[in-house]
Amino acid sequence: MKLWKLLLISALSVFFIWLFINRINFNEIKTIWLSIPLRFPLLFMLLSLPQYCVRSYRWGLLLRPFKRQIPFSSLMNFTLIGFMISYLLPGRLGEIARPVLLAEKEKIKKSQAIATIINERLFDLLTVLLLLTLYLISGLGKASPILLRLKVLAFLLLPLVFLIFALITLANSEKFLPRTERLIQWLSRVLPARFRASASAALVHFVKALHLNLGWTGIAQVFFFSLLHWGIILFSYWLLMRGFSGISLDLPSLIPFLAVIFVSAAVPTPGMAGSLDLAAKYALVGLFAIQEKTAVAFTILFHFLLLAPPIVLGLIAFWREGLNFKIIGRMRKKDELSTVR
């Protein structure tokens, strides 16, 4: 990552953190933490294990068109490694590292592995949007400016996600694939002549890899495990909130909160520092009228508990796979990523 990008992301993160903790009395925060029964934070961390297990298994389903038998241990290890890298370094580098490292170990094309991560994120977005849409049309929740913005966001993005899936399918259909290839070759003319052929070939291969060649049964399985994954996450937040005397919410009410933090997690700050915290406080106060000190106490705690398991387990998986951090330095170079095939 270029220095100016790193400085910009760091400055953005610091600014968000300042907005988050501004005018907060940390003695009050400490008092709230001391009042929480220990079982709730422990259960929150324990529930991260089935989350990553389900996510890893779903990734294996998306990879089946390229290699049917990938050991679950590899899927789990590289899932944890990817999240560990994304949480420790800026730029969401783990989203590239985990498919590339898995592809090298399992002898599949890197473009195919990276394409599964894009499809994985599309399924995540689709699942969260569907949950949010169902919540909104059910009439649950009190009207608020935040809920209104989420309603607009859901009704705009949900059709867009379906459109993206439709375009990927159409671009890979027998009738339109030659046109897709010609379009990519035409677009590649902006590149220097020596890179043109290899770049267009790589992009064609990548577009083909995006196609969900799973059949309706396979797609239904992926969607089921997406629902299960986000259901576990939703339940874990609800369980942790039960430890706070100033928070009393039913399980469905957490769906808009989940949507807000899902969007904020896309900001490429290291460990989602600042962006996640500010968004969570904003949602808790704006959606549920929770006291600011309680919202801050909950956010700091869940953010720490969210990061700790994948970082610790990711470091263990990193060691088990025989990797070293030099390979991460190599991946940070732009020219390495441009050669992905």
Question: Could you write a compact summary of the structure shown?
Answer:
The protein has helices spanning 3-21, 26-34, 39-46, 48-63, 72-88, 94-106, 110-137, 145-171, 177-187, 193-210, 215-241, 254-264, 275-288, 292-320, 326-331, 334-337. The protein is mostly helical and 341 residues long. The chain is globular.
Protein described:
Helices cover 75% and strands 0% of the residues. The chain starts with a helix and ends with a helix. It has 16 helices and no strands. The protein is an all-alpha fold. It has one domain (42-172, 211-337).
Question: What's the tally of helices?
Answer: 16
Global mean pLDDT: 88
**Multimeric state:** single chain
How many strands appear in the DSSP assignment?
0
User: Level of helix content?
Assistant: over 70%
| Low-confidence residue ranges | 334-339
SS strand fraction = under 5%
Count of domains: 1
Q: What is the string of helix and strand elements?
A: HHHHHHHHHHHHHHHH
Structural class: mainly alpha
The biggest beta sheet is recorded as: none
- Cα separation of the termini: 21 Å
Shape: globular
Radius of gyration: 21 Å
